[in-house]
Write a structure and sequence with these properties.
The chain folds into 2 domains: about 100 residues, no CATH class; about 140 residues, Beta Barrel (L,D-transpeptidase catalytic domain-like). Helix content is about 25%, strand content about 25%. It is built from 7 helices and 19 strands. The radius of gyration is 25 Å and the shape is globular.
């Protein structure tokens, strides 16, 4: 009888106080009681790294482990897509003419970021640590493998088949991209772009379609190759027409949207190998074109 009475009272209260579905929505928490962060205002590309690093610092103590940028962003992988969609050429395909990508909003106010638990963060770190970058120079292609599984690939541009005087280092350099093995040494979030030929800083860039835009903010990757820090960076180019060509001053150039994936899939410590294989990627029995001459360039 008592049970029937309690049930009747519960049904009466429930009928008297209509509840929305939100009332019973359960938000999982970890042992620290923190799982989510609600973004308080729009985050533009120009502020992205600063804001994200402040969030990781804010929650590290509460989460009881040191949360880092790679863990947070890969745990909220939609952020990478959002960054990719700030590319000038991606926006152009959508009918949007953007001349200052730094102002593009990457994360909107009210967005919810999920905080990984310590176990989730450890799994993410382990997974990223098993990634590897492979660049095949004559194929003009960069691949990222997770162990033996190909998870990403993209076209690149490589160094010219010539030598040239570079004012930025005051000497002649063989511009051909060099082979080697190593690892991602460090990264720059907002590098300063300088024309190595004349030493002048870039503030604007002329796109393939002739439109002049502000220089975008995209990260760059510095590699440690064969025992020393290589000057051959992996970074974005603002001219997609140069992809698939020997066009750079030695660096490995990617599309703007691709550098964001490479950056977040391959943190410092990631294995890097640059090869010159005329057979890899050939669709027929014919070898790839040998884009580099065998003779040594003579410096003038």
């Amino acid at each position: 009888m008592n049970r029937l009475l309690l049930l009747a009272i519960f049904l009466f209260v429930l009928a008297s106080c209509p509840l929305s579905a939100e009332t019973f929505r359960f938000t999982p928490f970890d042992s620290s009681g923190i799982r989510t962060h609600v973004v308080e205002k729009d985050i533009a590309v120009k502020n992205f790294f600063k804001v994200m690093e402040s969030i990781t610092k804010k929650y590290s103590d509460s989460l009881q482990y040191k949360l880092n940028l790679y863990q947070l962003v890969n745990h909220n992988s939609w952020i990478i897509d959002s960054l990719c969609h700030t590319s000038y050429y991606w926006l152009k395909e959508k009918g949007i003419k953007e001349t200052n990508q730094k102002e593009r909003i990457v994360i909107k106010k009210g967005s919810v970021l999920m905080m990984p638990t310590q176990k989730e963060a450890e799994i993410l770190t382990s997974r990223l640590g098993a990634n590897k970058i492979l660049v095949n120079i004559p194929e003009f292609k960069l691949r990222i493998f997770h162990e033996d599984l190909l998870i990403f690939d993209c076209p690149v541009r490589v160094g010219r088949n010539e030598s040239k005087y570079l004012k930025s280092i005051d000497k002649y350099m063989d511009l051909r991209t060099r082979k080697g093995k190593g690892f991602v040494y460090n990264t720059q979030h907002n590098p300063v772009w300088i024309n190595p030929a004349d030493g002048k800083k870039y503030y604007e860039t002329k796109r393939d379609d002739g439109v002049v835009t502000k220089m975008p903010i995209t990260p760059s990757i510095t590699n440690w190759m064969d025992g020393y820090v290589s000057g051959q960076l992996i970074h974005a180019t603002t001219n997609n027409e140069t992809l698939g060509k020997a066009y750079s001053n030695g660096c490995i150039g990617t599309a703007e949207e691709d550098i964001w994936r490479i950056f977040f899939y391959c943190p410092p410590g990631t294995e890097v190998e640059i090869i010159y294989d005329l057979g890899l990627g050939s669709e027929t029995s014919n070898l790839l074109p040998d884009i580099y001459d065998k003779h040594q360039h003579k410096y003038k």
